[in-house]
Design goal:
The chain has 210 residues and is α+β, with helices and mostly antiparallel strands. It contains 9 helices and 6 strands, in the order ββααβαααααββααβ. About 7% of the residues have low confidence.
């Protein structure tokens, strides 16, 4: 990731609003929360974070997301936030000091060889690099094309479908509306509807046709 910018977020107890976990992400923090919930409910990981999420789920609850810092430095600011929280006596479920767990970690020579060997047979990996000239031509060829307002509206209407949360019985005009109302990542809801995952944030979803 290098010096890539990211967002530092906290997962808070829904009953006390106290911070229980601090993390970093380049995604929408709501999407990151959905990933945490799906991982906690889908795997038998015994980390403090996932045990906490599973305990909340038993009471039909989920953590609240709080943005701590935007445009943060990857693997640097997360460590600072976690250290400050611990100095303040905040009871975190983080099991590492941040920064992907281990700062300065490097693969062993043996691990590098295994990774290289595994990538050799991957045609996609071998053929995805384009020359700078090719990339510039591809970008230039797309600059002139723009959808008309009418076309944009048609595309929007085509993809706008009502969705139903089976557990709650609530119906939303679209996955985007469900995301705003329930704090569940839109793409995760769509994946659950399309069968790419069983649930989204512990809920089952399907399209609603009335």
């Amino acid at each position: 990731m290098g010096n890539q910018n990211c967002t530092i977020y906290a997962l808070c107890d829904p009953n006390t609003n106290k911070i229980r976990y601090i993390g970093q992400t380049t995604l929408n923090p709501l999407c990151r929360l959905t990933q945490h919930i799906n991982n906690a409910l889908g795997y038998k990981n015994k980390s403090h974070l996932y045990c906490w999420i599973r305990k909340l789920n038993q009471n039909n609850q989920r953590p609240k997301v709080k943005i701590l810092q935007e445009n943060a430095e990857w693997n640097v600011d997360e460590i600072t936030w976690i250290e400050q929280a611990k100095l303040m006596g905040i009871d975190l479920v983080n099991h590492t000091r941040g920064g992907n767990g281990i700062v300065g970690y490097k693969h062993t020579d043996e691990a590098k060889k295994k990774i290289g060997k595994a990538s050799k047979g991957n045609k996609y990996a071998e053929n995805t690099k384009h020359s700078k000239e090719t990339n510039e031509k591809r970008i230039e060829s797309r600059k002139w094309y723009k959808h008309s307002k009418e076309t944009k509206k048609k595309i929007s209407e085509k993809h706008k479908k009502s969705v139903l949360c089976i557990e709650t019985g609530n119906i939303y005009d679209s996955a985007r509306e469900a995301e705003k109302e329930m704090g569940v990542c839109k793409s995760s809801i769509t994946n659950a509807i399309n069968g790419k995952s069983k649930t989204s944030a512990g809920f089952h979803w399907r399209h609603y046709n009335g």
